[in-house]
């Protein structure tokens, strides 16, 4: 679906992290692929892309099917070492994230993170990239029973902000995250990164935009309309 005006004025905005705020999906895939090659496995890109937006458990299962449990552990351990170096250096921002956060902060709109990454790594990545202090709450897969596409982490984020789910705008890059937001009763906007939405994703009926800057413009228009009433 192309851009349309927001049907409500958000009381809070909840952000996915990887692929939405941080250009980390490419880094993660690169580290996994390098670790696999070092272990003697030249795995297809489609395998790595199939992991985008999914929980650690799903990714481990996909690797099990490709190389077996023992090789999976070897690859994951090596990829963690490679990725730790990337995180320590600060994962690059996705375009438009700072302008979006500045816009929301200036207008006093609460902000939270809802990520499938485990808490220690999520906090480390946000801190190293200079984004941690820009949020009122950080909710991770460590904090909930069921990962995305279950709604748990988004519901926790809304609760942490003290905002009803129906009054929350969600910014996501993956179809898995969009499904989680919809299941939570929230209004998602998808800004695709590595994965273009397929027919099944587009059938969800949500707004899909090319950039965070486009999402910010929609918010600006909605807030201007609300002030004019």
Task: List strands and helices in order, with pairings.
Layout: E1 12-15, H1 24-38, H2 45-49, H3 56-67, H4 69-89, H5 97-106, E2 111-114, H6 119-128, E3 137-139, H7 152-161, E4 168-172, H8 175-183, E5 187-190, H9 199-202, E6 207-208, H10 212-228
Parallel strand pairs: 1-2, 1-4, 2-3, 4-5, 5-6
Measured distance between first and last alpha carbons: 27 Å
Neighbour order of strands in the largest sheet:
3-2-1-4-5-6
Going by helix content, strand content and strand pairing, the class is: alpha/beta
Query: Which geometry do the CA atoms define?
Result: globular
Approximately how much beta-strand content do the residues carry?
5-15%
Helix and strand sequence: EHHHHHEHEHEHEHEH
Mean pLDDT across the residues is 93
Computed CA radius of gyration, to the nearest angstrom: 18 Å
Helicity range: 40-55%
Q: Helix count, per DSSP?
A: 10
* Poorly predicted sequence stretches spanning 5 or more consecutive residues: none
Number of strands: 6
Largest sheet: 6 strands, parallel
